[in-house]
Structures are given as structure tokens and as C-alpha cells.
Amino acid sequence: MGKLPRATSNPVKITIEPASTGRESSTDKSKKVMVKDPVAVLKAVLPAGWIILEVRDGAHPHYRPEGNGTEILLGLEGKEYLKQQYSAALYIMPVDYEDGGADPTNCEVQTRPPRLIATVSNAKLYLWPGPVIDNWRTMQEDLLKALLKGSE
């Protein structure tokens, strides 16, 4: 498992991105901190049948500019995949990562790029929920609730 950003002892400001636009919102700010061990926290909150397939350092969200972050690939236990070998991907990127905007592909690819779901003072979180997540419709909300702690 790769190294992941560590929380600081001081609360940090966070912006939770609305699911519909995937871009920063200045109206929904609260003080939060990222948990110290995201992988352990995710293992504890994954729904039945979901597992962490792989954690990769030096990664960046697909269809977005290169960067040096951490990719956490999530999947369904026992599922045989045809193309990509996972069902969802979470990316923890440096706060200064330039992502190319809402859709840097201009809708010219078969799938949408991972969208920005949260920004804290030391990281940006991106999520690609995959094409079929019927058995985990609250994925974004559950991941944010687990990964970000602090006062509302």
C-alpha cells in the first residue's frame, strides 16, 4: 500500500463539491480534516461485496492531466472485469493539482473523467463511480463522510 496524505492537528477548510457540477462551490464550507489512514477507513465502510483492489502511488485521475497522487481502486469481490479491472476509483491529489476543468476531454471519450468531490487545504479528492453502482447509490456521500472528519 502506498503513502497517503496525513491529517494535520489543526482543522482545515473543505469545500464539498455538488455532485451535479463537479466544480468548486464557495457556499458549502466547513472545517474538516482528512483521516490519518484513508485505506483503513475505507475498508471499514465499504458495503458488503465491495473491496479495495489496489492502491497506487504516483497516479492521477484518468482523462485528466498528469499529477502525483494516490489512486484507490474499488471493486466487487469475485467480479470478472472485461476492460478496466475495477468498479470505481478514488484519487487523492495534491491541493495544487490542476485538473483541466469540469471535462477536459470535451465529451470526446467513452466515459466521463473522475470528478472533483472535495477540496481540503492539503488535498483534492476525485471520484469515478463507474458505469454501474446500483448496489451503492450513496458512494460519494459515504466516502466523504468516512474520509473527512470534523465539525459541520
Question: SSE order, as H and E?
Answer: EEHEEEEEHE
Could you list the spans in which at least 5 consecutive residues all have pLDDT below 50? 1-30
Strand content: 25-35%
- Widest sheet, order of strands: 3-4-5-7-6-1-2-8
Tell me, rounded to a whole number, the average pLDDT.
75
How many domain modules? 1
Helix content: 10-25%
Cα(first) to Cα(last) distance is 31 Å
Number of distinct beta strands: 8
Largest sheet: 8 strands, antiparallel
Structural class: mainly beta
The helix tally amounts to 2
What's the short story on this structure?
The protein has 152 residues and is mainly beta. It contains 2 helices and 8 strands.
Which tags fit this structure?
mainly beta, 8 strands, disordered N terminus
Provide structural commentary:
This protein is mostly beta strands and 152 residues long. It has one domain (12-149). The chain is 11% helix and 32% strand. The protein contains two helices and eight strands, in the order ββαβββββαβ. The protein has helices spanning 38-45, 139-147, and strands spanning 12-16, 29-34, 50-59, 69-76, 88-93, 115-120, 123-128, 148-149. The chain has an eight-stranded antiparallel β-sheet with strand order 3-4-5-7-6-1-2-8. A hairpin with a 2-residue loop joins strand 6 and strand 7. Helix 1 (38-45) packs across helix 2. The longest helix has 9 residues, at 139-147. It is globular.
